[in-house]
């Protein structure tokens, strides 16, 4: 409390563009693509598609979402809408506070030891080329699976001018279809990504 009798609070923070729940802007893995502050507002919202891969991920911590997984989702719920944001639900978000479990490694600072599920390149290529999505998201640390060294999903997605949402929280509370997602990143000038507030409007 100040001498003037009122309360005043202020602070400073510093963080990586790619920590916590964050967005990978297209420029992250693609030269001359949009930085996080240049993504048009209308690209930051759209129909939510949630593909539940918890069973596969529980059986294989290096699981990658397949084209067949997407075919099965469409058989149950209909065609993935153009302009949608497609999320892979792995169940990994439940282990956010357990670093060893979340990163699949007793040495999570060593990238060569990581193990967690994510997307396959083939699945994302189908979504980008044949379903015209706006972006993808996941409740793990990356849209490329833990052992990846060349990050093909990032390269493909960002090369197409699209973004990724990583470390997405409470994805299990979003239905397979019917919700609308709004994903608003911190507008870091020239940023390759940044913290993002993701809101799901439920049907």
Task: Walk me through what this model shows.
The strands form two sheets. This protein has a seven-stranded mixed β-barrel. The chain is α/β, with parallel strands linked by helices. It is globular and about 65 Å long. The protein has helices at residues 54-59, 67-77, 99-103, 121-130, 152-159, and strands at residues 22-24, 45-52, 64-65, 85-89, 118-119, 135-138, 163-166, 180-185, 193-201. It contains five helices and nine strands. Helix 5 links the parallel strand 6 and strand 7 (163-166).
What is the CA–CA distance across the termini? 44 Å
Helix content: 10-25%
Helix-strand topology string: EEHEHEHEHEHEEE
Annotation, overall tally of beta strands: 9
Itemize the secondary structure elements and their pairings:
Blueprint: E1 22-24, E2 45-52, H1 54-59, E3 64-65, H2 67-77, E4 85-89, H3 99-103, E5 118-119, H4 121-130, E6 135-138, H5 152-159, E7 163-166, E8 180-185, E9 193-201
Parallel strand pairs: 2-4, 3-5, 4-6, 6-7
Antiparallel strand pairs: 1-7, 1-9, 2-8, 8-9
Helix pairs in contact: 2-4, 4-5
Could you give a short description of this structure?
20% of the residues lie in helices and 21% in strands. It is an alpha/beta fold and 203 residues long.
